[in-house]
């Protein structure tokens, strides 16, 4: 199940049981049992142990999968919706434990990762890992001028704190922005702060992963090499 000495919460997150923080909560609640005894935070596994969560045996046989999806507009970036609206999960093969890595709002489109690996989700979404996200933006007012882009590079004040673009480049009918974090509707709010309304928003890149020519609504399975490269890109930045 694990390499010798691998931490329990990392193993369970990697197998899609929950995020690492979620696994820690399960351990604290006494819902994880190792070889018949309640698990402890920080304990390490040799790979020979019997691990159960809520009485269910957990094994390393579950296939860990990660997809790249070109999310279309009008689809929710969530695993389920209580109002029955379409979600990104509906666009992919039925896969236990599959969940979005971060989010794109309903009207945004482009590169979205979905995985069964909770550890991968943490590594790609937590700000401390510094994974860059690139957005192609179209604005109702047209091309964003250099003065407004400079303000975005310096940083603008939003209701949840200061936000800045790592890169900001003018393009026909809008601009290209690179961010190092992913707050809710951040691109739209940053452009609104400099007087521009977003009419279309497409994420084209996350770290080393590029959308390329993937059609809207289409997806592909990522290789282990691509995943390792994506994780390494955050470590280098």
What does this protein look like?
The mean pLDDT is 89. It is elongated, with a radius of gyration of 20 Å. Strands 7, 8, 9, 10, 13, 14, 15, 16 and 17 form a 9-stranded mixed beta sheet that branches. Strands 3-2-5-6 form a 4-stranded antiparallel beta sheet. With 237 residues, the chain is an alpha+beta fold. Strand 5 and strand 6 form a beta hairpin. The protein has 6 helices and 17 strands.
Average of the residue pLDDT scores? 89
Q: Tell me the structural class.
A: alpha+beta
Q: Count of DSSP E strands?
A: 17
Number of contiguous helices: 6
Helix proportion? 10-25%
- What profile does the largest beta sheet have? 9 strands, mixed
Structural shape: elongated
Beta strand %: 25-35%
CA radius of gyration: 20 Å
Q: What's the helix-strand series?
A: EHHEEEEEEEEHEHEEEEHEEEH
Span of the ends, CA to CA: 31 Å
Low-confidence runs (pLDDT<50, min 5 residues)? Answer: none
Layout of helices and strands, plus pairs?
Layout: E1 6-7, H1 8-14, H2 20-28, E2 32-34, E3 37-38, E4 44-45, E5 51-53, E6 56-58, E7 66-71, E8 99-101, E9 109-115, H3 118-125, E10 133-139, H4 146-154, E11 156-158, E12 161-163, E13 167-171, E14 174-179, H5 186-193, E15 198-206, E16 209-210, E17 219-221, H6 224-236
Parallel strand pairs: 9-15
Antiparallel strand pairs: 1-4, 2-3, 2-5, 5-6, 7-9, 7-17, 8-9, 10-14, 10-15, 11-12, 13-14, 15-16
Helix pairs in contact: 1-2
